[in-house]
From TrEMBL:
One of its GO terms (molecular function) is ribonuclease III activity. GO terms for biological process: siRNA processing. Keywords: Endonuclease, Hydrolase, Magnesium, Metal-binding, Nuclease, RNA-binding. This is RNase III domain-containing protein. GO terms for cellular component: cytoplasm; nucleus. Residues 101-248 form the RNase III domain. Its cofactor is Mn(2+); Mg(2+). PROSITE patterns: DS_RBD, RNASE_3_1, RNASE_3_2. It holds the Pfam family dsrm.
Length: 349
C-alpha cells in the first residue's frame, strides 16, 4: 500500500518493472476483481488508515476546495450528496410583532430574506405559539456544526505553521457554550430570546448581574468561574444556522456575520488550556498521583472533590456549582493553584 508507517529500508526495495532479479510475489484479488502482486504483508492499524483518509480529505479541501474534497470522498466510498435542496417554509407569521428584526439584523450585519428563521432561532422550547414554526433546536444543531467548521478553517489558514495539537486546543477554547454565551451577553442577545420560563428568566438575570464581575474583554477560554444558562450559547449557534439557511448555505456570509460577535478570537499567545486537561498533564509530567474525582450533589447543585498527592503532600479541594462540568473545572483550578504555590520558593519577609 501507500501508507508508510515505518522508515524506508533501501535493502527491501526493488525497482518497479525490473525483472532482472528473482522476486517471490503473491497474487491477491481486490474487491473490484482486479489482481495485484505483493512481496509481503504488513499490519497497519485501522486508526492510521482513518487518519490518512482524513488527512487526504484535508489536502483536497485546502488545495482544491470543498468540491474537490467531496469528489475525493465519493471516490473512496464516502458518498456525499452534491444537491442543495431549497428550504421551503410556509408560515403565516409577522416576525416584527415578535422580535426586533431591524435591530438584530444590524447586530448581525445581515438582512434576512425570510425573517421567520430569525424568530425560530430566538424561540426557546418554553415559548410555543401556533404560528411559530418551532423552537431553535434544529437551527442550533446546524449552526453548531457550521461554526465548528468555520473556526477550524479560520485557524488552519491563519496559523499555517501551527501544530495540530495547538490548533485543536485553540478550537476547543473558541467553540464551546461558555464562549458563545459570553458573546451573547456582550451583544445583549438575551434581551431578544422568546421564552416563558420563570426559572430561565431568573437564571439569565442572575448571570447578567454577575457578569459585570467577570472579564468582558475576551470571548474565549476557560476563565469563567460561573456557569452560563445553556440557552445563551445556543442562540448564537441557532442564529448561525438561520443565516446559513437563509443565505442559501453560504458559509462565508455566516462567518462575516457571526465572527464580529466572537471577537477577539483566540491566538497562540492568549491560549489557555482547560484546567482539567492542564491538571492531568501537570500530574503526568511531575509523576503526581491524581485520585479519581469524587462527585456529590446537594440541593440541586453539583460538588466535585479533586485530590492530588505530590511529594508526600495532599492537595485536596472541593468546588460547588450548578453543574458538574463547572464544579470540576473550578476544583481543578484550585488544585493547580495549590500545586503551583507549593513549588514556589519561599521569600523572606
Amino acid at each position: 500500500g501507500f501508507i508508510r508507517n515505518e522508515s524506508f529500508d533501501p535493502k527491501n526495495w526493488f525497482i518497479p518493472g525490473d525483472y532482472s532479479g528473482s522476486y517471490l510475489l503473491y497474487e491477491e484479488l481486490l474487491y473490484d476483481g482486479r489482481k495485484i502482486y505483493t512481496r509481503e504483508r504488513r499490519k497497519v492499524k485501522s486508526k492510521s488508515v482513518a487518519d490518512v483518509v482524513e488527512a487526504l480529505i484535508g489536502a483536497f479541501l485546502s488545495t482544491g476546495g470543498e468540491v474537490a474534497a467531496m469528489y475525493f470522498m465519493n471516490w473512496v466510498g464516502i458518498k456525499v450528496d452534491f444537491v442543495h435542496i431549497p428550504c421551503e417554509r410556509h408560515f403565516q407569521l409577522q416576525p416584527e410583532k415578535l422580535v426586533n428584526v431591524g435591530h438584530i439584523e444590524s447586530l448581525l450585519n445581515y438582512s434576512f430574506r425570510d425573517p421567520s428563521l430569525l424568530v425560530e432561532a430566538l424561540t426557546h422550547g418554553s415559548y410555543m405559539l401556533p404560528e411559530i414554526p418551532g423552537c431553535y433546536q434544529r437551527l442550533e444543531f446546524l449552526g453548531d456544526a457550521v461554526l465548528d467548521y468555520l473556526i477550524t478553517i479560520y485557524l488552519y489558514n491563519e496559523y499555517p505553521g501551527m501544530s495540530p495539537g495547538i490548533l485543536t486546543d485553540m478550537r476547543s477554547a473558541s467553540v464551546n457554550n461558555d464562549c458563545y454565551a459570553r458573546s451573547a451577553i456582550k451583544a445583549e442577545l438575551y434581551k431578544h430570546i422568546l421564552h416563558a420560563s420563570h426559572k430561565l428568566h431568573k437564571d439569565i438575570v442572575y448571570t447578567i448581574e454577575n457578569f459585570e464581575r467577570l472579564s468582558t474583554e475576551s470571548t474565549f477560554g476557560w476563565d469563567s468561574e460561573t456557569s452560563f444558562p445553556k440557552v445563551l450559547g445556543d442562540v448564537v449557534e441557532s442564529l448561525a444556522g438561520a443565516i446559513y439557511v437563509d443565505s442559501g448555505y453560504d458559509k462565508e456570509i455566516v462567518f462575516q456575520s457571526i465572527s464580529p460577535l466572537l471577537q477577539p478570537l483566540v491566538t497562540p499567545e492568549t491560549l489557555k488550556l482547560h484546567p482539567v486537561r492542564e491538571l492531568n498533564e501537570h500530574c503526568q509530567k511531575m509523576h503526581y498521583d491524581m485520585k479519581k474525582p469524587v462527585k456529590t450533589s446537594n440541593n440541586g447543585e453539583a460538588a466535585i472533590t479533586i485530590e492530588v498527592e505530590a511529594n508526600g503532600v495532599t492537595h485536596k479541594r472541593k468546588s460547588t456549582a450548578s453543574n458538574k462540568k463547572t464544579a470540576l473545572k473550578l476544583a481543578c483550578k484550585e488544585v493547580l493553584r495549590s500545586l503551583k504555590e507549593a513549588t514556589q520558593p519561599a521569600t523572606n519577609s
